[in-house]
């Protein structure tokens, strides 16, 4: 005779379903990130939307906020900062008590959208707040979603915005500081992107030697990883350097 009643069976089934949905959310979000890094914006948005569906099904609004932030990052990087701004705003109000690191990475994403919209005051405000929140060591398990979001990460991500605000020397210092402490065996794609951004900032300053040195390292990583983001950033540096070589 079974000791398990209908109510217990229903509870177990619900736990299994929630665990399955959480796993699907993580998987689809990863697909979205891979698609973004491969340069396929349409696929990146598709998979991230699937992840968002599962986050909402679970009712985990920290996860909803993080996934909205990811979608904001994708569309902003694809040249739609207005849409990205709206999604970042939605991420920041998705929960009444956002984990500090999720708030930090969402502010960082909104700051990037503001920079592409040439709203420098709002950009500087959000970056400042993002650095503060990223430094908090809160006990919330939700912080694990964005555990990579440290003050140095936020600062590095803001680097290209300083180039666009006509302060490339500030960007160069930021990128070099980040690279000097970057673990060689971690986040290789992001390290390659940082090198490509350094090459671009150096090219803006007409420092061809520094640009070529950084670009050479970035090219090696781009070839190994197949990252379309690194390749696109390298093309920006090349286009800046080409007129100087003629």
Furnish the topology, listing elements before pairings.
Blueprint: H1 6-37, H2 41-58, H3 61-77, H4 81-92, H5 100-116, H6 120-134, H7 151-157, H8 159-164, H9 168-180, H10 188-204, H11 208-225, H12 228-245
Helix pairs in contact: 1-2, 2-3, 3-4, 3-5, 4-5, 5-6, 6-7, 7-9, 9-10, 10-11, 10-12, 11-12
What can you see in these coordinates?
The chain has 246 residues and is mainly alpha-helical. The protein has 2 domains: 19-149, Tetratricopeptide repeat domain (Serine Threonine Protein Phosphatase 5, Tetratricopeptide repeat, Alpha Horseshoe); 158-246, Serine Threonine Protein Phosphatase 5, Tetratricopeptide repeat (Alpha Horseshoe), CATH 1.25.40. Helices cover 77% and strands 0% of the residues. It is built from 12 helices and no strands. It has helices at 6-37, 41-58, 61-77, 81-92, 100-116, 120-134, 151-157, 159-164, 168-180, 188-204, 208-225, 228-245. The protein is globular.
Apparent shape = globular
- Distance from first to last alpha carbon: 87 Å
Radius of gyration: 20 Å
Number of helices: 12
Q: Which structural class do the helices and strands define?
A: mainly alpha
CATH fourth-tier homologous superfamily of the largest domain: Tetratricopeptide repeat domain
SS elements, strand count? 0
Order of helices and strands: HHHHHHHHHHHH
Helix content: over 70%
Task: Give the percentage of residues in beta strands.
Answer: under 5%
Mean pLDDT: 90
CATH-defined topology of the largest domain:
Serine Threonine Protein Phosphatase 5, Tetratricopeptide repeat
CATH class of the largest domain: Mainly Alpha
Count of domains: 2
């Amino acid at each position: 005779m079974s000791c398990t009643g209908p109510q217990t069976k229903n509870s177990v089934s619900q736990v299994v379903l929630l665990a399955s949905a959480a796993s699907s959310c993580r998987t689809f979000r990863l697909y979205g990130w891979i698609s973004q890094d491969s340069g396929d914006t349409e696929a990146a948005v598709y998979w991230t939307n699937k992840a968002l569906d599962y986050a909402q099904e679970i009712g985990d609004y920290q996860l909803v906020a993080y996934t909205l932030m990811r979608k904001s990052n994708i569309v902003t990087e694809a040249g739609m900062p207005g849409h990205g701004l709206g999604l970042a705003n939605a991420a920041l109000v998705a929960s009444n008590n956002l984990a500090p690191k999720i708030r930090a990475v969402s502010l960082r994403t909104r700051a990037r959208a503001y920079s592409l919209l040439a709203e420098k005051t709002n950009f500087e405000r959000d970056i400042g707040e993002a650095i503060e929140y990223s430094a908090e060591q809160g006990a919330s398990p939700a912080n694990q979603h964005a555990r990579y979001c440290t003050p140095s990460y936020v600062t590095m991500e803001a680097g290209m915005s300083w180039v666009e605000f006509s302060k490339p020397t500030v960007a160069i210092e930021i990128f070099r500081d980040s690279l000097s402490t970057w673990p060689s065996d971690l986040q290789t794609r992001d390290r390659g992107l940082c090198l490509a951004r350094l090459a671009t900032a150096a090219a803006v300053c007409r420092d061809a030697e520094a640009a070529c040195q950084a670009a050479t390292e970035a090219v090696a990583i781009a070839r190994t990883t197949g990252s379309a983001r690194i390749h696109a950033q390298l093309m920006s540096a090349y286009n800046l350097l080409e007129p100087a070589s003629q």
